[in-house]
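Shape matters. As here.
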Amino acid sequence: MVRTSLGAVLSVVMLTGCVQATEGPTTTFDGLAGSRTVDTDGNVEMNGAAITLEGRVGGWVEMNGASVDVRAEIGGDLEANGASVEIDAQVTGASEINAGSADLEGVYLGPVEVNAGNANLDGRYAQTLRANAGSMTLSGDHAAPVYFAGAGRDRNFLGRARADRSRLILEGHLAAGGDVCAHEVIIARGASLGDVLRVRADSMPDLPSGLSADMVVYEPRNGEGCREF
């Protein structure tokens, strides 16, 4: 829903600095299922099984539910917790997403933290992204370093440890590189790096044509898990 250029939103960050939650009224919802369309200078908090937020919020937003859907312009911080979380927003403050499955689009001016079983990230990110997930596809435009840790070993129904099959697929542009760790790291055709990317994985990722080997520093995991960021 947001089409603002990354250059424009970075200019906003430099002019306004860090944005805190506003001291205004808080719109709340507590129930089984709810959808709210708002235009407020205050804050929004929604709790329920299936919750949806649209519109403009000048302050912070907190969403807690099984199914969480946010399509809004947010002037403060965003926190979304749910089994399934879908975000298509412009967020001026920091964003924290905790989900079984997460899909992000839009523009994120503050730092972003994602903890998920499976995640797909698109959009534009002005500050650092830190992510811990079992599987993630990373698209979009990232102006600051990206840090990713594949989720630890899972277990079968007998409680026995199974091999770590965490995976990261890089499809976007990482202007400042970063540090990523997973069982498998895939650098897809069309991905680009503006600075060095450190990769810790069980094997060296294949580099697509046009990507210099000098931009990727590979380190074998040697059976070790990934440290969360």
About this structure: Residues 6-16 form the longest helix (11 residues). Helices lie at 6-16. Residues 1-6, 8-22 have pLDDT under 50 and may be disordered. The chain has one helix and 18 strands.
